[in-house]
């Protein structure tokens, strides 16, 4: 589904990614761990198409498409979803209007008619239930006045509505208490299908107790220095990163 070859990327002439190689297949969950400043968030931003990062070398192929040649909205229409570490507030735009616009734009790109009001509201209620979200949140501004946990639930709700082929979750566990972590992770697990994939970016093993990955990668100074099964995350939790960096 996703293949990254020798990816290099910079911001303000500072090289952050220094040769990333990664293959993610359908049905897989991959976890990316690493110390602060290793390039984890940069990698997610480059895949999603955030314009402040400049790709200087390498290729990214997604479902047969040259991802780097596409605009962010074109990547989204193909099925790429990015869950932000710090979801932004959008005052004056309600959740229901935001999601209706997103869903119908997605359907338009696939030559499908817009959802009727009744069908959309039914879908929205079903997806809100996945993350145990109060229906009253549908009329509130996007993330406006939401707690950290509510913002992260809202991100997974958006993911549930859009049903992406590839979801990239950038430190979704950041700032979550145990109960919110359980709900958010449970939502991610319910959305897993044989034809989609997820990349989970995290600092901590605790998220991976709930979302169990097929592969764990450790990123350091812009390169993947180790890839292994889920036991790798437990080793990192117990021993830190120094034992890998100094090998």
Got a strand count? Answer: 12
Distance between the termini: 31 Å
In which range does the helix fraction lie? Answer: 25-40%
What proportion strand?
25-35%
Q: Any idea what the radius of gyration is?
A: 18 Å
What structural class results from the helix and strand content? Answer: alpha/beta
Mean pLDDT: 91
Describe the structure.
The protein has helices at residues 40-48, 72-78, 95-109, 117-130, 148-162, 178-190, 205-208, 231-239, 242-245, and strands at 2-11, 14-24, 29-33, 54-62, 65-66, 80-83, 90-94, 141-142, 166-170, 197-201, 215-220, 223-228. The protein is α/β, with parallel strands linked by helices and 247 residues long. Helix 4 crosses helix 5 and helix 5 packs parallel to helix 6. The longest helix has 15 residues, at 95-109. It is globular and about 60 Å long.
Summarize this, please?
The protein is α/β, with parallel strands linked by helices. The protein has helices spanning 40-48, 72-78, 95-109, 117-130, 148-162, 178-190, 205-208, 231-239, 242-245; strands at 2-11, 14-24, 29-33, 54-62, 65-66, 80-83, 90-94, 141-142, 166-170, 197-201, 215-220, 223-228. The radius of gyration is 18 Å and the shape is globular.
What is the secondary structure topology, with strand pairs?
Blueprint: E1 2-11, E2 14-24, E3 29-33, H1 40-48, E4 54-62, E5 65-66, H2 72-78, E6 80-83, E7 90-94, H3 95-109, H4 117-130, E8 141-142, H5 148-162, E9 166-170, H6 178-190, E10 197-201, H7 205-208, E11 215-220, E12 223-228, H8 231-239, H9 242-245
Parallel strand pairs: 3-10, 3-11, 6-9, 9-10
Antiparallel strand pairs: 1-2, 1-4, 4-5, 7-8, 11-12
Helix pairs in contact: 4-5, 5-6
């Amino acid at each position: 589904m996703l293949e990254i070859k020798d990816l290099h990327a910079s911001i303000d002439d500072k090289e952050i990614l220094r040769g990333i190689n990664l293959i993610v297949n359908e049905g897989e969950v991959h976890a990316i761990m690493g110390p602060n400043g290793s390039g984890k968030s940069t990698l997610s931003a480059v895949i999603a198409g955030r314009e402040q990062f400049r790709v200087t070398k390498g290729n990214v192929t997604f479902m047969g498409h040259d991802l780097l040649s596409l605009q962010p909205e074109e990547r989204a229409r193909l099925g790429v979803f990015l869950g932000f570490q710090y979801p932004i507030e959008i005052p004056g735009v309600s959740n229901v209007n935001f999601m209706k616009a997103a869903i119908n734009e997605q359907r338009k790109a696939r030559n499908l008619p817009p959802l009727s009001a009744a069908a959309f509201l039914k879908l929205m209620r079903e997806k809100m239930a996945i993350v145990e979200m109060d229906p009253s949140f549908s009329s509130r501004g996007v993330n406006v006045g939401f707690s950290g946990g509510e913002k992260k639930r809202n991100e997974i709700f958006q993911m549930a509505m859009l049903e992406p082929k590839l979801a990239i979750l950038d430190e979704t566990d950041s700032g979550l208490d145990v109960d919110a972590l359980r709900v958010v992770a449970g939502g991610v697990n319910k959305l897993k299908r044989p034809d989609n994939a997820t990349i989970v970016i995290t600092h901590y093993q605790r998220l991976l107790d709930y979302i169990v990955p097929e592969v764990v990668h450790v990123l350091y100074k812009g390169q993947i220095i180790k890839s292994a099964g889920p036991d790798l995350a437990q080793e990192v939790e117990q021993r830190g990163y120094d034992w890998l960096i100094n090998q």
